[in-house]
């Protein structure tokens, strides 16, 4: 989810990755080791109590095979799986590609209006998800919402009811998701673009490369690593995304636009079957675990060293 | 220029080439301005919608207008005076949100800096494990943990306490703090610690007198991150806080959202008021945010 993962050390991590580790040349002595362990204890305790323990309990809650039989016999669960895949595949990839393009736009326009526009453009990221998704919900919810008013002002006909059909409601979720998270990834790509030395472009343009060729053959290969890591990271976060669907459509119409997080939440707290909810969340693990392993390996090889 | 004068025969095609290039730049600028305008509308539409609804004094229905015909600040006045039964405890709940944010910020800074000092500066053996745990927590989506988390807290009778929510946010914010502080710590020469050590300083003194003062910029970034995390998340707040006296604004808004009678203009006004602190922080720090490495 979202707000927990607003800022990330990605580009810093990636650039510093190749720096050598500094070593304390004097070996730790007895009392120093005790100090170091004492310093780590608060973090270890918080991690054990509020991250590791809930993970174990969650796995235990969702461990009965019968739960999965129940899940797969629920047609709404199948719909939820399809929605989640659509949401993640379309949402993440469109967002990343747009972020790549928009970062190029801001890279070129660094005059006063480009900078001002960037400050405004980052607003969705700075605003609480709760506020903006509620606002988007009200834009869509009735035929007098802002979008329908705009529609009828421009075309003169009545606007569509967005939350009545599954396809428009799902589209609304994906667009709202892109709206909220595009600025953040644009910022990440913008700093990655700024790290590319100017000389590379000068050399390319002396060789006669057009701007398009420069983007395809210079910028993209140099940013491929950042792009890949960003996409993987965003995929994992989006698989657990709750706020978009919860506020924008709330599963409407008739809970046909749920994703795994909202489906699990609904089962656990509205229907009152926490085990089933936990099992629904756990069913994302076959996708999440390989991605996490891939990501940690990739970050270790090309970046973060701890 | 002088070259062109010298080779006068080449002047003509050259000028047309320059005109072509100027034309292309003009076209590029127009396209850029158009793209900028699209971005502006795209970004501001939902924000404008919040204002539009909040400034309307009819709460229960939409007027279908594109701009407020009769803008009134009534809904903001109602919030200020707590003049609706949904908003009876608004400022108390706002205070709770602030306590939640500040406590998360301070605890994250303390726990994160202690851990990163131990693994980065003191080279604790197997410190790498801590780093991996941090990275794993950072990658995992927090919503996945909410069901077991709430289950555990109910079992131990710890739900409906602000401190449980604070503990959850500290657990989710410290991994980022550890990662960032560790990276930033590499920029501070390790020789400083060695000198202090030779002069007889204990690790605690090195941490307090050398590490913390030199790490101030990174600590501020980490603190703001934790504050915003606590302010912008709501899932854990409305799952764990149930009594009106312990609720935060985020938890209260969700209660409105669940009931159909909630007046929309008050809700949007609350959402706007709730958005003001992060916006203020964002504008105050945007210098660091856009291009400073520390911000990440």
Task: Write up this protein.
The complex is a heterodimer of chains A (about 300) and B (about 300). Chain A has 15 helices and no strands. With about 300 residues, chain A is mainly alpha-helical. Chain A folds into 2 domains: about 30-60; about 75-300, MetI-like fold. In chain A, helix 4 packs parallel to helix 9. With about 300 residues, chain B is mainly α. Chain B folds into 2 domains: about 1-45; about 85-295, MetI-like (MetI-like fold, Orthogonal Bundle), CATH 1.10.3720. Chain B is about 75% helix and about 0% strand. Chain B has 13 helices and no strands. Chain B has helices at about 1-5, 10-55, 75-80, 90-120, 125-140, 145-155, 160-185, 190-200, 205-215, 215-230, 235-240, 250-260, 265-290. Chain B is flat and about 70 Å long. Chain B starts with a helix and ends in a 5-residue tail after the last helix. The model of chain B is unreliable at about 1-10 and about 290-295 (pLDDT under 50). Chains A and B meet through helix 1, helix 2, helix 4, helix 5 and helix 6 of A and helix 2, helix 4, helix 5, helix 6 and helix 7 of B.
């Amino acid at each position: 989810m979202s707000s927990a993962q607003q800022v990330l050390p990605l580009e810093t991590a990636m650039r510093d990755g190749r720096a050598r580790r500094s070593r304390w040349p004097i070996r730790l002595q007895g009392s120093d080791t005790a100090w170091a362990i004492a310093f780590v204890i608060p973090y270890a305790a918080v991690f054990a109590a509020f991250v590791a323990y809930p993970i174990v309990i969650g796995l235990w809650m969702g461990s009965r095979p019968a739960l999965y039989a129940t899940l797969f016999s629920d047609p709404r669960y199948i719909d939820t799986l399809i929605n989640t895949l659509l949401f993640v595949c379309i949402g993440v990839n469109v967002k990343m590609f747009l972020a790549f393009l928009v970062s190029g736009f801001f890279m070129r326009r660094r005059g006063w209006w480009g900078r001002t526009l960037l400050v405004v453009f980052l607003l969705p990221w700075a605003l609480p998800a709760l506020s903006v998704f509620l606002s988007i919900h009200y834009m869509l919810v009735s035929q007098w919402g802002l979008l329908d008013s705009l529609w009828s002002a421009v075309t003169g006909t009545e606007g569509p009811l967005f939350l009545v059909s599954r396809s428009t409601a799902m589209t609304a979720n994906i667009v709202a998701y892109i709206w909220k998270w595009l600025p953040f990834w644009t910022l990440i790509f913008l700093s990655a673009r700024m790290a590319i030395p100017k000389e590379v472009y000068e050399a390319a343009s002396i060789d006669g490369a057009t701007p398009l060729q420069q983007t395809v053959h210079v910028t993209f290969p140099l940013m491929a690593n950042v792009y890949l890591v960003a996409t993987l990271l965003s995929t994992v976060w989006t698989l657990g995304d709750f706020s978009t669907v919860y506020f924008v459509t709330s599963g409407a119409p008739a809970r046909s636009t749920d994703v795994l997080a909202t489906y699990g939440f609904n089962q656990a707290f509205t229907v009152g079957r926490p085990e089933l909810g936990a099992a629904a969340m756990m069913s994302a693990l076959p996708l999440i675990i390989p991605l996490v392993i891939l990501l940690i390996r990739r970050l270790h090889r090309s970046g973060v060293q701890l | 220029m002088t070259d062109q004068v010298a080779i006068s025969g080449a002047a003509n095609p050259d000028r047309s080439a320059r005109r072509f290039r100027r034309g292309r730049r003009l076209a590029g600028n127009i396209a850029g301005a158009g793209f900028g305008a699209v971005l502006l509308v795209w970004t501001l539409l939902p924000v404008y919608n919040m204002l539009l609804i909040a400034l309307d004094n009819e709460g229960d229905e939409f007027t279908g207008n594109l701009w407020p015909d009769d803008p009134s600040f009534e809904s903001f006045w109602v919030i200020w005076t707590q003049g609706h039964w949904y908003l009876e405890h608004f400022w108390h709940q706002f205070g709770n949100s602030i306590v939640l944010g500040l406590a998360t910020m301070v605890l994250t800074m303390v726990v994160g800096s202690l851990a990163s000092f131990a693994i980065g500066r003191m080279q604790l053996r197997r410190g790498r494990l801590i780093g991996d745990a941090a990275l794993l927590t950072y990658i995992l989506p927090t919503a996945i943990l909410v069901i077991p988390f709430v289950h555990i807290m109910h079992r131990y009778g710890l739900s409906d306490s602000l401190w449980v929510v604070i503990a959850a946010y500290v657990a989710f914010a410290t991994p980022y703090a550890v990662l960032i502080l560790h990276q930033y710590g590499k920029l501070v020469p390790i020789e400083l610690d060695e000198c202090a050590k030779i002069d007889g300083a204990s690790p605690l003194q090195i941490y307090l007198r050398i590490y913390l003062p030199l790490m101030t910029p990174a600590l501020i970034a980490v603190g703001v991150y934790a504050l915003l995390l606590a302010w912008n998340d709501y899932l854990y707040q409305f799952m764990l806080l149930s009594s009106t006296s312990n609720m935060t604004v985020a938890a209260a808004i969700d209660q409105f959202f669940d009931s159909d009678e909630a007046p929309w203009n008050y809700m949007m006004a609350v959402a706007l008021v709730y958005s003001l602190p992060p916006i203020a922080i964002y504008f105050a720090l945007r210098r660091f945010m856009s291009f400073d490495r520390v911000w990440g």
